[in-house]
C-alpha cells in the first residue's frame, strides 16, 4: 500500500458488514465522501460478508460483531482462514466497549475495534490506520476486556520465548504505544523497534500487534492493572 491508499495509488476499498441498514448507510456516507476511500460492497449477515469480501477483495472490512446467521467473530475467522495473506484488515464494530464478543473477535484476528458512536473523523482515521498495517487498540478498553478473563498461566507464555528487549516491547505494545513512542521510551532507533516487533510477532505466531497483545494478556504475561 501507498500511505493510506490502496495498491498502485488507488482508493482504499472498503466493505461494510452490519445488519442495520441505517448503520451501513451512515458509514457509506462518511467513508464514501473521502477522496482516498471507496465502499465496494455491503453485507447484512456474516455469511454475506464472507461472500462479498471474497468477491470484492477489499483492503478493509468494518464488521459488526453481532449479526444473524453467522456473527462477526465467525465471519472474521472464516475470512482469515480462507484468504490467509490476502485477507483484508478487519475492524469489528460494536455498540459497547465492554462487549465480551469484542475480545473473541480480537482473538480471531481482527485488527481492532470501533464503537458505533465514534465520531466521523475517528472512523476515517481508524480505516486509514489499519490500512497502513497498524492495529487499532484502545489500552483502557482492552485492559477492561482482559480483566474479565482469567489468564491461562500455562508456562508457555510469551516471556519464555522473548528476549528481555522483546518482552519490554510487548509490554509497551500492550499499553498502546506506537513504534515511535516505544523507540523514544527505550532510547533506541525506530528501525530497532520495528525489528523487535517483527521478532515478537514471529515468536508468538501472531498476525499483528493485536493478536500479540491478546496473547500477552491471556497468558498472564501482561496483567490488566493500571499503567
From TrEMBL:
User: Which Gene3D superfamilies would you find in this protein's record?
Assistant: 3.40.50.2300
Does Iron show up as a keyword for this record?
no
Q: Which Pfam families match?
A: GerE, Response_reg
Which InterPro entries did the record assign? CheY-like_superfamily, NreC/VraR/RcsB-like_REC, Sig_transdc_resp-reg_C-effctor, Sig_transdc_resp-reg_receiver, Tscrpt_reg_LuxR_C, WalR-like
Output the SUPFAM superfamilies linked to this UniProt entry: C-terminal effector domain of the bipartite response regulators, CheY-like
Modification type 4-aspartylphosphate: residues: 64
Annotated HTH luxR-type domain residues: 155-220
UniProt keyword list:
DNA-binding, Phosphoprotein, Transcription, Transcription regulation
Q: Keyword check for rRNA processing, yes or no.
A: no
Q: Domain named Response regulatory: which ranges?
A: 13-131
Q: What is this protein called?
A: Response regulator transcription factor
